[in-house]
Write a structure and sequence with these properties.
229 residues, mainly alpha, 3 domains, elongated
C-alpha cells in the first residue's frame, strides 16, 4: 500500500510540484540516453532506456521506480507542456508557467526530425525557438559577416588613392628669373666654346701635318727600294 501511495504521489498531477527534483532527474537521464537507442548502441529500444532511467532514479532517491512509470511521467510532462504552450499562444489568455520548458526544449532539439517551435500572436509568427548551438552559430556567422564587411570596406578605403596635391603655379616674376638664368647659362657655354675653338684648330692642323709627313716618308722609302732593284 505504501508503494502505491508513493507511486501516486510521484506520478500524479497533485504530486508534481513536490517531485520537481525527481522529474528533473528523469528528464536529465532521458536527454543523456536520447541518442543511445538502436543497433550497436546501448539500448535496443525505448523500453530498455526507460528501464535504465528507472534504475538510476531508484538508486538516487531510494524509492523504487519502474520503466513504465518513468515513461508515463515523461508523457505527462510533455502533455502538460503542450497544453500550456497552446494556452499561451492564444490571444487574450493570461500567460501561465510552462513546467520544465527548458528541459523539454533541449530534448526536442536533439530530434532532427522535429521543426523548431514557433511562438505566435494575432499577427503571425513572433519568433522561432532554436537550440543554443544553432543560435550561437547564427550569431557567430552574423558577427563574422559584419567583421568581413568591415575589413572589406577598410581595404577598399586603404586601396583608394588619395588625390595628389596640386603643384603650385609659378608667378610671373619667378618665370622671368628662370628665363634670365637660362640665358646666362647659354652665354657662358658659348664663351667656353669660343675659347676652346683655337686649341681645337691647332690640334686638327697638327694631325694633318703628321699625316702628310708619314705619307712623304713612305713615298721616299718606296722610291729607294725601286732604285736598288
Amino acid at each position: 500500500r505504501l508503494y502505491k501511495c508513493l507511486k501516486h504521489f510521484f506520478f500524479s498531477g497533485t504530486g508534481c510540484e513536490r517531485t520537481a527534483g525527481e522529474t528533473k532527474l528523469l528528464l536529465d537521464y532521458y536527454q543523456q540516453y536520447f541518442s543511445q537507442i538502436g543497433p550497436m548502441k546501448k539500448f535496443k529500444n525505448k523500453k530498455a532506456r526507460f528501464a535504465k532511467i528507472a534504475a538510476n532514479i531508484t538508486e538516487a532517491v531510494g524509492v523504487p521506480k519502474t520503466g513504465d512509470q518513468c515513461c508515463s511521467r515523461y508523457k505527462t510532462v510533455k502533455r502538460q507542456k503542450r497544453s500550456a504552450a497552446a494556452h499561451n499562444n492564444k490571444s487574450g489568455n493570461s500567460p501561465c508557467e510552462v513546467s520544465f520548458e527548458d528541459d523539454i526544449a533541449k530534448i526536442r532539439w536533439l530530434d532532427d526530425s522535429l521543426e523548431p517551435e514557433e511562438l505566435r500572436d494575432n499577427f503571425g509568427i513572433v519568433s522561432i525557438k532554436r537550440p543554443p548551438s544553432q543560435a550561437s552559430t547564427s550569431q557567430a556567422s552574423r558577427s563574422q559577416e559584419l567583421t568581413s564587411q568591415g575589413s572589406t570596406s577598410q581595404e577598399l578605403t586603404s586601396t583608394t588613392k588619395e588625390p595628389e596635391p596640386k603643384k603650385p603655379k609659378l608667378s610671373a616674376s619667378r618665370m622671368l628669373e628662370m628665363n634670365h638664368f637660362f640665358d646666362e647659362m647659354s652665354k657662358i657655354q658659348e664663351e667656353k666654346e669660343k675659347k676652346n675653338e683655337p686649341n681645337t684648330r691647332m690640334k686638327e692642323e697638327s694631325v694633318i701635318k703628321r699625316g702628310k709627313n708619314r705619307r712623304s716618308a713612305f713615298g721616299k722609302k718606296k722610291q729607294n727600294s725601286i732604285k736598288k732593284k
